[in-house]
Specification:
By secondary structure, the protein is an alpha/beta fold. It has one domain. The chain is about 30% helix and about 20% strand. The protein is built from six helices and eight strands. Strands 2-1-5-8 form a four-stranded parallel beta sheet, with helices on both faces. Strand 1, helix 1 and strand 2 form a beta-alpha-beta unit. Helix 4 crosses helix 5. The chain starts with 6 loop residues before the first strand and ends with a helix. Iron/sulfur cluster binds next to helix 2.
Amino acid sequence: MTHAPPKILISACLLGQPVRYDGKGKPFSHPAIDRWRQEGRLVTICPEMAGGMPVPRPPAEIENGASGLDVLEGRARVLEVTGGDVTAEFIAGAEKALALAQTHGCTYALLIDGSPSCGSVAIYDGSFSGVKHAGNGVTAALLQREGIAVYAPSRIKDLVLEIGQ
Ligand code: SF4
């Protein structure tokens, strides 16, 4: 019996969709992405839009140098630079991303780094001063907690090796 090749959940902005807070995309090109797309193996989502946030929207960061798991477990909030509390939207978006991944059987995710939703290597520290620290965003944390392997674009070679096709 042969297994279907794994599907990959991917940040919409990585495919160039204009869903970021500033109304832009952040396209990332790699031959593996082109191939996975042609094979119908990419499942696309913007967790922040799925959580009900508009485009454009104020930039947001997880407060006090905390991380996505802290948000999921109620120890930290996600705040906009304008002071708005968007914690509920970020958690709702993460849950939608997880549901979509599970519906499509995605065991891997390729998410843009630095985002308070999608980051998996480093995120901003909540001071809105451009300072990053090691940590992950709310969606990345939820996916990882549920056993989905999350990769940043800087680690796409590792993802290709891991998937093996
Ligand atoms: Fe891109 Fe993720 Fe931010 Fe949406 S939530 S704009 S997919 S980084």
